[in-house]
## 1
Amino acid sequence: MTMPAAPLTSLTDVLQQYWGYDSFRPLQAEAMQAVLEHRDSVVVLPTGGGKSICFQAPAMAMPGLAVVVSPLISLMKDQVDALTECGISAACINSSMSNAERLQVANLIRAGRLKLLYVAPERLCTEKMLDFLESIQVSFFAIDEAHCISAWGHDFRPEYRMLQQLRIRFPGIGVHAYTATATEHVRQDISTQLGLRDPEWLIGSFDRPNLIYRVQRKSDVQKQVRAVIDAHPGESGIVYCISRREVDELAQLLVRAGYKTRPYHAGLPDTDRIKHQDEFLNEDTQIIVATVAFGMGIDKSNVRYVIHTGAPKSLEHYQQETGRAGRDGLEAECWLLWSSSNFITWRKMQEELPEEAKNHALECLKGIERFCTGIVCRHKALVEHFDQAYETPNCNACDVCLDQLDLVSEPLVIGQKILSCIVRVKESFGADYVAQVLVGSKEARILDNGHDELSTYGLLKEERKEAVRDWIEQLGSQGFIERVGEYNTLSVTTAGWKLLKGQADVRLLKPSKKKSASERSTKIELTSWEGVDRALFEVLRGLRRRVAEEHGVAPFIVFADTTLRDLARRRPTSLVNFRQVHGIGEKKTADFGSLFIDVIRDHCEQQQLTTDVSAQSESTPRPKASPAAKPAAAKDALSLSSAKQLAFDLFKTGKSIEQVAEATSRSVSTAHDYLIDYLGVTVQEDPAPWVTEAEFARIREAAQTVGLERLKPIFDELNQTIPYDQIRIAVACLRNSI
Ligand code: ADP
Ligand code: ZN
């Protein structure tokens, strides 16, 4: 029996009424339309893309009960909690419930009082359950995490195969599959396995523009990890390690250093795992150090960073694991710390696999290896890996595009030296050997082979062998070199021959270290914190936790971080204005409105802040360098670490560098760096009050003679009478006026 389709316009009302959202995200409208029209669909959106609402909103707009298949109790529970908080009648049926509880749910359904039912596939596909569903009005079936049906996916669950019955037993009712899976093969398999009828295919972009990717070689891992954590005080993050031993060690170190940290891996007793996961969700603990065992079923939307302390075994895994950051669409950082030994470890582990699986695993490993050693935009590299085009010239959200990589000035010459050495040793040796020849090593095997006689011997003798090794990797990742045979001997590719002839472009990194987390220079936009009163945000965060505890739900279910920031930005003191805030629907206004308004009013009175700021009156300065091609939402999502944000707020009010250093508990030199960034981001042309007018005039004059490229000539031109710090500030402003 096919019901008439409800109009899409009513869905906008549903979205506003229950969720407090004003518009659809990409493909959501199309996905909902398919549901309303009872047309089967396969919806592929990245994590955080907003898949749930694609079936939750239509469920509210259609008569009957929507049945949602979900693989994990924790996922069901989170979604049911979130829906209930929005005023939607949803429930789940699972093994952790008593018979009486299940009966209660069945009664609600019979009375037509439930809109969404969450259930595991094996329970759904029992005869009893299917009979029951045939006796009531089902609006549609939504299969969440649908890749679990495919043996090709990363998370095959045989019980999902039972869902094949649905299409046969409920011919008139739409079946809709939702997944974030990136591979074509798996998507096709989903449709085939479910027996979908000419489904609507809706495939979103795999890019996650709010994730800031940074890739760095592992050096002092503890220091590197702490630098990232320190840049996110009080915020939630996940640190992935390859082995359980590493998890235990790192977690202990962090606990000892005073960080709220918990370990998570399959070797821990169930009770500990559940406890640690709950503590993370409830924000009693800030950091989870985990193996890949952690993550599935984690819907926590405000994970602000994910750190990998070793390379995962494929880009698919990397995408999956980093995907847990920034689900709320706000900025989040993804740090990948890797070392060559990671790849050796994975290769060893894969040796035992059957031939076909082994080859596949090796291909995957090559992909992530290229990603680590590569120096192309990380967003581009990831998106293209998943066979989608990426046109944005500068993502403004990765180490490569943020200009943190120091490139050598003559990469062609170095590239040619390396390639010609590979040719001279007759493409019969590995990377280490070639590097040794290039740096002029006196190792016996090189002398025995007579390779000290080669014209390329010692061509790069000023460099360290490790630097040359890195360049070889970089040439490999850019396709100029490939490794062949059992011994991984280097061979020059067709592209490599072009490079030898000077007919190709190459980029190589300077051997010097990349910048660390704490000293990263950020030209990144700060718009997602624009206008937000940080102190109020912290106060509201505390309140959210208390409320969540009382309601027995996770804090992010009460309000997402986006909502909390919007509250601290607009500072509503009436229910009408409260209801206008992003992510606040009718029920949350009724439930939490007065409570939050009281706290906001108190805070604003004490701090003499304006209240009831309307959305339109916010001034949002746009940095000059913002990429035109990027959607506004993506740009809005980027921001800075909180210390820097505070510094920016203070600079805006004209505070001195010393005052800012004190307020942010940072050194004067760091505060100085913040100021330089602040001037860049706000595109300020006047250095007052940090440089006097007279000094500025003299610096400007000197710069007219010697240029703005470097500071030293200006310093000398001024007979060294004005300190560098002042010159740096003035020059930052002069550069803005070019
Ligand atoms: P996914 O299941 O695809 O990973 P979710 O359904 O969990 O993503 O959605 C991620 C977040 O985005 C949630 O907090 C959700 O409420 C929010 N969201 C979804 N759709 C919209 C929208 N149209 N406008 C604003 N926020 C949205
Ligand atoms: Zn980039």
Note: The chain has four domains: 9-203, 211-402, 406-511, 527-736.
## 2
Amino acid sequence: MTFRVPKGTDDIMPPASRRWRRVLRLFDELAERYGYELVMTPVFEATELFSRGVGESTDVVQKQMYTWDDKAGRSMTLRPEATAPVVRAYLNGGGRGVAKYAYSGPMFRYEQPQAGRRRQFWQVGVEYLGEDSPIADVEVIELGYRFYTEAGIPDVSVQLNSIGDAESRAAYRTILVDYLETRRDRLSEDSQRRLATNPLRVLDSNLDTAEVADAPSPVDHLSPASAAHFSSVKAGLTDRGVPFVEAPRVVRGLDYYTRTVFEYTAASYGVAQDSLGGGGRYDGLAGQLGGAEVPGVGFSLGIDRVVLALGDAEEPPSLDAFVVAVTEQDHAEAQAVLARLRASTIRADSLARVASVKAQLKAANRSGAEWVVRVGDRPGKVTARSMKDGTQEVVEIAEVVAWLTQ
Ligand code: HAM
């Protein structure tokens, strides 16, 4: 009997997983470089965290959650996103002061699967809590942009918008609903439904792009404070050399946003107009979850999509050296050399069992190692041979780590 992965999920296997490892490491390193501490929250939470946090009227909550009753009858949900859980964790820890958190892990949404749209997918993200300054927005947007650039996606664009604070949103909502009501009959069924529950989302409906082309934009109805915040974010991004375009139709699919919202897109990722990542400010979320009013801003980036955008270009080899024993008698010495390499920062491997040189070289080739280190040609020495250009050098065993490192 054979089993397969559930629909919309994947086994991430080598060689593709090399790319995953590289980009996940990169994110980890970048988040640390920018001062974000790691947080890990459970993969499942009380359902109400998401219905209250993400919003009852959103597609995520209405259609996409994996929800079940546990044995004690409590409603539980596999996390569809991590912002509400991270804010919950912050509030549980006292919920005061500035906190900068990074996370990385699987999320779950019951979607119609296609390339880049999975039922289990991987997000990395940051949440900058307790800070109202537009510099926090700028830092977060810049960090995401740097991640894509350093990962090797060249043409990333930041689609930037502001949907205003609670006050400007309420005023704008009335104006938008008045406008949408005048053309209700021509809107898709989905948008007609959203008109009542979540009118802002009609703006980014793929079915009604033409119909709402001249709809009033949130940025034209910002309160003075929200407008000033938005100007500062744009000026900050310009100062830091982060390219962005103003995107009045980007309103985001989750309910917790206020003021700044943004999405990352790339020409190399053109699947169904989907974004590579997105985020924004959510100054009302902590209050919504029963905590104090704590401002926050963050993003989540979809790693499945990052990997797709990178295409099938070769990843650099993940091994530096492969150790080969020339004869059976050299096997123990070869294992000692291997241990010496691994005790330094050199990534090294060998065959565990005694085998012919030919079999070992075949394995070395398959491993993608940059160097073959032969043990047994001369006593006390190894022969280091570059797999790239075939050049080789005889090196003292005591010197081999230093020699390979430079
Ligand atoms: P989101 O826009 O729902 O935002 O998701 C962010 C990213 O996760 C998307 O741009 C995409 O790359 C990836 N993603 C979402 N759904 C799927 C899927 N079914 N398959 C593959 N990738 C997917 C959030 O989740 C917010 N928590 C972002 C945020 C953080 N806002 C503030 N802080």
Note: The two ends are 51 Å apart (CA to CA).
